[in-house]
Write a structure and sequence with these properties.
Layout lengths: L4 E7 L3 E8 L4 E8 L11 E2 L1 H20 L6 E8 L5 E3 L9 E2 L8 H11 L1 H8 L8 H11 L1 H6 L2 E3 L1 H10 L3 E2 L1 H4 L6 E2 L4 E2 L1 H7 L7 E2 L6 E4 L2 H7 L6 E3 L2 E2 H8 L8 E5 L3 E7 L9 E4 L6 E7 L3 H11 L1 H8 L5 H7 L12 E3 L17 E3 L7 H25 L7 E4 L6 H11 L3 E4 L5 H13 L5 H7 L2 E5 L3 H27 L2
Parallel strand pairs: 1-5, 5-14, 5-15, 9-12, 16-22, 22-23
Antiparallel strand pairs: 1-2, 2-3, 4-7, 6-8, 10-11, 13-14, 16-17, 17-19, 18-19, 20-21, 23-24
Helix pairs in contact: 2-4, 10-16, 11-14, 12-13, 14-15, 15-18
Amino acid sequence: MQKKYLLGFDAGTSESKGTLTDLEGHVLATTSAKHGIISPYPGFAEHDPIADWLGDLKKIIRSLLDQVNGQAEEIAAIGISTIMAAVTFVDENCEPLRNAILYGIDTRCMEQAEEINQKIGSERMQQEFGTLCTVEHFGAKILWVKENEPEIFSRTKHITFASGFLTARLTGNYYVDKYSASSALPMLDIKTQQWNDEFCELICPKEMLPTIAESTYSIVGTVTAKAAEETGLAEGITVICGTTDAGAEAVSVGVVKPGDTMLMYGSTAFYIGVTSEKVNGTKMWSNPYTIDGKYCCTGGMATTGSLTRWIRDEMAKELVAGEESGGENAYTALFREAESIPAGSDGLIVLPYFQGERMPIQDPKAKGVFFGLNLQHTRGHIIHAAFEGIGYGISQNLQLFEDAGVPVGRVTAVGGGTKSLLWLQVVSDICGIIQQVPEVTVGASYGDALMAGLAIGTIESPEAIKNLIKIKYVIEPNMENNKEYKKYKELFAELYENNKNIMHQLW
């Protein structure tokens, strides 16, 4: 049967998405499937790999093919992305032994991260990796299971990343791309991009870890007969290594050349700036990129869209009820209340550290703060100040790019937050940056399909991807507001520094 399609699948924090394109990368169909976060204890965040990832994959394959009246045999290749550093423990049959432990929003392994830093030494950690081990990193999560669930660890044959779990279920082969592997501190040798024997001894046998693929779009196998029966795919479909959601999302909007920068507005925020070589001496993460031969600087914030969702759900319940009864979208109604609020929100400042914070403070014990409230403030002030608090954090992160010698010019904005032009405008005003929003904002699953096309040669080059991208909006900064925000950015930073000790006591 003639091959017609490229398939991309992305498993995110709260939903999975799928995209079907033609062989040249033009979108033919999209779909999504929602799933939740399992949180058995405070600070815990997990997914069920079978129900949440594999189950969603089955649903999405069927939905996409139904939309185009297509057959699984017509799919030429599949690319998969998932949330960063979701640690999955499986047996010899690739059956999960426990729920997967998610990325930075799961903070259970603070003690293990500190243990790693002490054993290796902070100075050597900085020399080897440019950063200390945190709850973000693969090694701390593995060590937590090793120390707290020894029976699980003793039965473990393979420890995979989330994307690697799915590609292993499809092909029987265990791989991880270099971009994803960058989160596997301290086991990864940054210089050689291979597993470090010395540091693996502290965490787990390196034989448990996946093979590091040469490229994100290296072909790592084909769909097996067993996987075809399990998923609805056809036996023999090409499977690429795959990557994390942010890396795939950046590719989906043409962030492929040095100087390109992506800002992702999701439940969390993530930034990627493409470079021609590794950048040293930065507080950002610098690692190989999803595009062959390129590097990137990356960073993220822990609470962005999840904060606006919390405000909507807890402070605008009548708007949510109205939407559920067929009325106006609750976000649209809520954000409209913020449109008339001036820059600085009449003295209200929000520290958006409701799940700790990643970059730039790297403090999992940080707390969210509403500071400066008075009786004249409204709900509109609260949501506007939340936009600003996130914007101040974004500004701090972009400054890390500048400090590292990675210029930030025009930024491509992606993610669900781009639906709010007010939010985009606030961020542009605070940061003094131009943001562009593409017409096609399908997200990571689209990037997965594009990289599948690169793997089999139906898409000629990364530059060809850039030519597919059309821009819908361009957000220019209001420089008068930018001047007003300078003092608030300073107060934002001072507010954290002056209160972090109290935050830590509340942990």
